[in-house]
Amino acid sequence: MSRPEIENLRTWPRNLSTSLGGGLSTALGGGMSTALNGGASTAIYGGLSKALYGGMSTALYGGLSTGLYGGLSTALYGGLSTALYGGLSTALGGGLSKAIGGGMSTSPSNVYRSNIPPWPYFVRELEKRGYDWAVERIKNHLPDFLWPENYF
Question: Where are the domains of the chain?
Answer without folding.
Answer: 11-41+70-116, 117-151
